[in-house]
Amino acid sequence: MNTTTEESKQFWEEKEKEKGGKVHFFTFATFLGKTNDKQVTLGGLLYIVDDRVYFEDFEKDNWFAKIVSKKKNYEKTEFSFNINDINETRIVSKGSALNCIAGNMNDEDTKSISNILKTLFQSAVQVRLKSYSYFFDIMRDRDFLKALQSS
After folding, report:
1. How does pLDDT run across 5-50, given as a tens digit for each residue?
2. Which of 42, 46, 60, 93 is most buried, judging by how many CB atoms fall within 10 Å of its CB?
3. What backbone phi and psi angles, to 5 degrees, belong to 83?
4. 28 CB-near residues (< 8 Å, 6+ apart)
5. Cα separation of 133 and 36, whole Å?
6. How far apart are CA 45 and CA 98, in angstroms?
7. How far apart are CA 144 and CA 125, in angstroms?
8. DSSP structure class, residue 97
9. Whether the Cβ atoms of residue 117 and residue 54 lie closer than 8 Å to each other
10. Per-residue pLDDT for 1 more than 70?
11. DSSP state, 42?
């Protein structure tokens, strides 16, 4: 068990060195897509270093796909944005997030959902920047929103 803890510590030390700052917050997240773009489902890490938010996915190990089909070349997805460029964050229904990604709804027309609705329906975190929004399914969504405010 100590090996996992040590590997994790080493991973985050490498990220801090690579990004040039201290990791203030991290969580697992699924990137759903960006306004007027294609829908994706990329599992990965969402983390904050200084005044930037980073997302990076990791390769899925799907044994069934390896047996049945030819192996697709994995292309890493990694992007970041400055916290100061965020106009608004809110927890929205996953349906409205997918509508924004598909271009069927403007990102400023989404509505926050209540905690009650969040327990009944799937939700997503919308991070609205000047020209577009990113949508994530975040494991610790409330903690992420608090971390943004304190950074």
Report:
1. 889 899 999 999 999 999 999 999 999 999 999 999 999 999 999 9
2. 46
3. -60, -35
4. 43, 44, 45, 46, 138, 139
5. 9
6. 20
7. 9
8. H
9. no
10. no
11. E
Q: Using CA atoms, how far apart are residues 130 and 98, in angstroms rounded to an integer?
A: 19
Q: Report the DSSP beta bridge partners of residue 90.
A: 126
pLDDT in tens, 55-109: 999 876 655 555 566 556 778 899 999 999 999 999 999 999 999 999 999 999 9
Kindly list the distances between the CA atom of residue 131 and the CA atoms of 69, 70, 78, 87, 107, in Å, as whole numbers in the listed order.
Answer: 38, 38, 19, 10, 9
| Distance (Å) of CA 134 to CA 9, 24, 40, 91 | 28, 20, 11, 12
Residue with tokens 């020209």: 131
| Predicted pLDDT of residue 131 | 93
Given a contact cutoff of 8 angstroms between Cβ atoms, the answer to whether 135 and 126 are in contact is yes
CB 107 within 8 A of CB 33: no
DSSP designation for 130: S
Q: Whose structure tokens read 């460029």?
A: 85
Contact present, 26 and 46 (Cβ < 8 Å): yes
Buried b (16+ CB within 10 A) or exposed e, 129-139: beeebbbbbbe
